[in-house]
């Protein structure tokens, strides 16, 4: 189920969500919480192992809790995530049975371990100085570690060297270590995607959809505007713009990125790829509220036929309450929504569907899919591509 727990039933039919269990197995579990509709429990003993159960390689997997699916084979992890994504969207009425037909195969991570390029660590005073570790899932307990098997192999030794050298910037209780695409190690910095190889696949997938849309447009649109909402440091903005320019060099494409983090926007503006791209450090909902309802009024003064493509990549909380209705009023010809939480994706798609109905506009889903950005965990990265229907 969402949240990573296995779903079972007691002999009297009560649904129980069981931490530490795997599909198709029998376990003895200790009930930790009950309600009128379901109970929660944790596995005490595996009586009959399921076919997908494996031995977790991490020695602190049970105390840390950050990788709650290490006891499940990777193939099964991917199958479960695909099923959860489909079920969440269908049960939440974000899509119909017709929408289920638009699902593409879930994209596995090429590296089920050692994929994280960014790790946030805690420190604690010990008899031999500071030690590093994580906070136990759903608690404030400190879990000391020697290594982290989902982190890039250089990150934990780098963090340990910083702590042992008593660097001023890691004396605080919490700090982040990052490995960039060039292999440079650093402390902190703006938000970056944790799984570099999967992020490259995501960039390529989104860029391909947008290039196909532009190349097959029959209206002879010459001037395109890419509106990248929750744009971060331009993670999707730059590859999309460059891909369109390679595919159709005769067209004009300009981009606007809107991002609440001033640090990320500063990173984007410093990027040499930022030609004909503007970035705004502002809350997305507030920025959209200040814009005119008609699409891309800021660029139409150039006198060229103009259309807009919108990309969204919000944090786990999803979009602000009125963002989807404001997007519906802009009537972009293509929307690509990238999500790291199927529940908020579902909520936002329902809001969008309600808004376009009020606008008497119609959109069709071109593709829905998932990427495993976070192997060994229950987190799911998903995307939905929607195109405006033209009469």
* Count of alpha/pi helices: 10
Total beta strands: 16
Task: Indicate the overall shape.
Answer: globular
Unreliable runs, pLDDT <50, ≥5 residues? 294-299
Q: How much helix is in the residues?
A: 25-40%
Textual characterization of the structure:
The protein is α/β, with parallel strands linked by helices and about 400 residues long. The chain contains ten helices and 16 strands. It has helices at about 60-65, 75-90, 95-100, 155-165, 195-215, 235-245, 260-270, 285-290, 325-330, 340-360, and strands at about 5-10, 15-20, 25-35, 40-50, 120-125, 130-135, 140-145, 175-180, 185, 225-230, 250-260, 275-280, 305-310, 335-340, 365-370, 380-390. The strands form three sheets. Strands 12-11-10-13-14-16-15 form a seven-stranded mixed sheet, sandwiched between helices. Strands 7-6-5-8-9 form a five-stranded antiparallel sheet. Strand 6 and strand 7 form a beta hairpin. Helix 2 runs parallel beside helix 10 (about 340-360) and helix 5 (about 195-215) crosses helix 6. It is globular and about 65 Å long. It starts with 5 loop residues before the first strand and ends with a strand.
